[in-house]
Amino acid sequence: MKMKFHNSVLVATFFAATWFAATIVLAQQNAAGHASDFSSAEYYDAPHAQQMKSRISGAEASPQPGGLLDIKKLKLEEFGVDGRLEAVAEAPECVYDSMNGLANSPDHLQMKTGDGNLSVDGEGFLWRQTNHWLTISNHVQTVIKGVMESKTGL
């Protein structure tokens, strides 16, 4: 029973330290002000820890109240474990909440697959970094080109 208690304390300490470090990073972002060529990447877990999973980038990023970032010329990229570009989405602007892994905007968004066989355009979007979900709200148009392979066997 003692071992479980010590592991719980260790886990709680780890999460508290992580939250404290994130708060310090957020404060440094706000203190730094406007940034050019903004980029933030997420990597796969081991054994693919050297491979980028996703990247959010922009031509400019400006801190906003509440720890948010206003990103101009947004680019969201998703990569496979093999490093292949799976999808890219672009928008003129968005608000990025790095603490919660959310990006959103009422503006136009264009998304296409890495092979160019599928593209989706629309107005207004929400990207959830935690599960890599992109929701496009309004005036959605989808174009499918060529032959797409089915991964489900259907």
Put the structure in a nutshell:
The protein has 154 residues and is of the alpha+beta class.
Structure description:
- With 154 residues, this protein is of the alpha+beta class.
- It has 2 domains: 1-32; 34-144, Lipopolysaccharide (LPS) transport protein A like domain (lipopolysaccharide transport protein A fold, Sandwich), CATH 2.60.450.
- It contains 1 helix and 7 strands.
- The protein has one helix at 2-32, and strands spanning 35-43, 52-64, 68-79, 85-97, 102-113, 118-128, 133-144.
- The protein has a 7-stranded antiparallel sheet.
- Strand 5 (102-113) and strand 6 form a beta hairpin.
- It is globular.
- Residues 1-31 have low confidence and may be disordered.
